[in-house]
Design a protein that fits this description.
By secondary structure, the chain is mostly beta strands. The chain is built from 4 helices and 24 strands. The protein is globular.
């Protein structure tokens, strides 16, 4: 029996024996896993998919939804990319665990409202920061490493729209997936979407942010940040890009006049299309309008290579677990 839990199957033309990528459907399982393959037959209780070497049957009782998608393709970094059918935005494209789209420019008020539910508060014992959801299906979100550094007891506060208002919802089961201390990036995953203390047991519906293109970021461009500075939740600050490549301690940042303060860390910096172009990370103490964000191209590289930065609970400082060296066979100093 083939288990699909925690498995993603992207079927290419090589497996199907064709000269070009074959059209495929995306099958989202109730477990959260996704299978992208060509459906060859459907019955009242089973769907049969072609995974190349064989045909696999999937019980429909285990399927959450089936989405028609365009042929799978490879982006520049070698991770699977697909065009989602019926996505939340025009031209929505999936790149592994993050999305891009063809969004139109708009006012800060309009765009801030559109992304309101995708920006979250990340809470650890004794400290908090900000973050944003990049994959609403699997519950992945981004923040700064320094926001969760040294902690594993992590909660996320979601601001869910309800009757025209934003309702504060806390989710306690959050797992560290990967982090890179050098670039100050961390990838988290919401494991359980049922709010803390909820009697209904109804899961929260997550919303995602779209990642933008760093090549389009120029000095003078209008930007805005959303976060929780000094604990003031859902704070929006507006500014411009002061410099698209400011070097600090050997790293390149986007410099912005948008107000950045403690608590903003890990939150998104948006362009006028409502796309994330950076992660707000630091500011100059004593200076005005001197905030800095990690460019989105570094975020994309981190996500595409996240396996190299995977978190290991048995060795929390890195994704590598070292074996103990062999002990000396005889006590005392060597001859």
């Amino acid at each position: 029996m083939i288990r699909f839990e925690n498995i993603r199957l992207w079927i290419t033309a090589a497996l199907l024996g064709a000269g070009a990528p074959a059209a495929a459907e995306e099958i989202v399982l109730k477990s959260g896993a996704t299978v992208s393959a060509k459906i060859v037959k459907r019955t009242d209780d089973t769907v049969f998919v072609d995974i190349g070497p064989t045909i696999v049957s999937i019980p429909l009782k285990d399927v959450r939804e089936i989405v028609e998608s365009a042929p799978a393709a490879k982006d520049g970094a070698g991770e699977s990319e697909g065009v989602a059918s019926g996505g939340d935005a025009p031209g929505e494209r999936r790149h592994g665990i993050y999305y891009t789209a063809d969004l139109e420019p708009g006012s800060v008020k309009e765009k801030a409202d559109a992304v309101a539910e995708a920006v979250v508060k990340v809470v650890c014992p004794g400290k908090s920061g900000s973050g944003f959801i990049i994959d609403e299906r699997e519950g992945f979100l981004m923040t700064n490493f320094h926001v969760i550094e040294g902690d594993r007891d992590i909660s996320v506060v979601i601001y869910e729209k309800h009757d025209g208002e934003l309702r504060r919802v806390t989710l306690d089961k959050v797992r560290i997936v990967a982090f890179n201390p050098f670039f100050d990036l961390a990838l988290l995953k919401i494991e359980d979407r049922v709010p803390t203390g909820s009697e209904s047991k109804e899961p929260v519906t997550l919303k995602k942010c779209y990642l933008g293109d760093i090549a389009g970021v120029k000095p003078g461009d209008g930007v805005f940040a959303i976060g929780n500075p000094l604990g003031l939740e859902r704070t929006v600050s507006e500014g411009i890009v002061s410099n698209d490549s400011t070097a600090i301690s050997g790293l390149i940042y986007i410099q912005t006049t948008a107000a950045i303060n403690p608590g903003n860390s890990g939150g998104p910096l948006f362009n006028d299309r409502g796309e994330v172009i950076g992660i707000t990370s630091l500011k100059v103490i004593g200076g005005e309008g001197l905030g800095f964000a990690i460019p989105v191209n570094l975020v994309k590289d981190f996500l595409k290579n996240r396996a190299a930065f995977a978190f290991d609970k048995d060795n929390a400082n890195s994704g590598i677990r070292y074996f103990q060296p062999p002990r000396k066979r005889t006590p005392g100093s060597p001859e």
